[in-house]
């Protein structure tokens, strides 16, 4: 399989030899993502149980911060886990933009999940919104990388 992936590189390019991931940071990344997902679901339930509109809105934003912040943290920790024999830096403005994207789109997920009763299609819509959120944050976060390497 790796041969198939490597064969798509241009002939004058090679994969980065000596690159690896720190297993401890990869595990931490997974734990952060799991905790964020659990917290967001618990907060979505709290939204659905809130009687007053101002409390529902408050819990939506708390949930969006938990979910979006967790998604972003998981991704950034995983990026820090990547160890390569070259200098890697991050554009702070683009990195912050990826956090804003994660939180803002997670607010939409919290609006979708924070209902007293959900139908199957509403779960599907929330899952699609969450996946889109993760993809948008991921590609923005990857665009923040500043390195001599070419990203494919």
From TrEMBL:
Listed transmembrane segments: 27-47, 59-82, 94-113, 125-145
InterPro entries for this protein: MHYT_dom (IPR005330)
Domain MHYT, chain residue ranges per copy: 21-152
Pfam families tied to this protein: MHYT (PF03707)
A GO cellular component entry from the record: membrane
Keyword entries, A-Z: Membrane, Transmembrane, Transmembrane helix
Name of the molecule in the record: MHYT domain-containing protein
Species the sequence originates in: Stutzerimonas balearica
Phylogenetic classification of the source organism: Bacteria, Pseudomonadati, Pseudomonadota, Gammaproteobacteria, Pseudomonadales
